[in-house]
Amino acid sequence: MQLPFEQFPALSAIGICRHVFTQRIPGIDVSHDKAEALRRLESAHREIRNAIGISDWPLLTAQQIHGSNVAIIDAPVESDRIALGVYAADCCAVYLLDPKTPAVGLVHSGRKGTELGVVTNAITQMVECFGSTPAELIVQLSPCIRPPHYEIDFAAEIIEQCRAQGVLEIHDSGVCTACDLDRYYSYRAEKGKTGRMLALIGLDSTIAIRRKTVRL
């Protein structure tokens, strides 16, 4: 059986990171609260991580509270390769890639997070902590809920916030999670009893270091 996940051409083309956005896992009953749904999905998500070659990378996820705070990881944690992860079921996973520094970021931005400017904060932190230049960033928006299934088009607001920061290359999947329940989980459409998609990104430090060496 083909593993249910997708990857984005704009991120794959750069060749210095591993990433994935999981889809609905067939045959798993996720009509439970979030903790139980994630427990049931854990094995399938681990299998997908293995399929993209990051099963042995430490996975760092944040406590998602629909706020605007951003955590910075500027040193290896148990490994020289780490994966950042967020869970989503209608909210947008926003992938940030700086191919020059190099550095990556991953933001969970729904209605409230977008209103509070969490993506703007993440870009600001990448500039301040890693010396990133917004015009050189690559931004990718995952599938998320959109009108008419939701009253706010927060994906459009995220794009405008990125542009306001000077980001030039922004890619949007354009896909609505509530429109395709065969492929995605939707918190709103399934009234809160559903699973979560796992968004992952990790910098392939071996390739990144090799490229830096070549530049020198």
How does this model look, in words?
It is globular and about 45 Å long. The strands form 2 sheets. The protein has a 5-stranded mixed beta sheet with strand order 1-2-9-4-3. A 4-stranded mixed beta sheet has the order 6-5-7-8. It has a single domain, classed as CNF1/YfiH-like putative cysteine hydrolases, CATH 3.60.140.10. The chain has 6 helices and 9 strands, in the order E-H-E-H-E-E-E-E-H-H-E-H-E-E-H. It has 216 residues and is of the alpha+beta class.
Count of DSSP E strands? Answer: 9
Which residue ranges are poorly predicted, with pLDDT under 50 across at least 5 consecutive positions? 209-216
Helix content: 25-40%
Structural class: alpha+beta
Distance between the termini: 45 Å
Name given to the CATH homologous superfamily = CNF1/YfiH-like putative cysteine hydrolases
Number of helices: 6
What does the oligomeric state look like here? single chain
Bin the strand percentage. Answer: 15-25%
Rg, Å, rounded: 17 Å
| Main beta sheet strand tally, sense and closure | 5 strands, mixed
Summarize the model shown.
This protein is of the alpha+beta class.
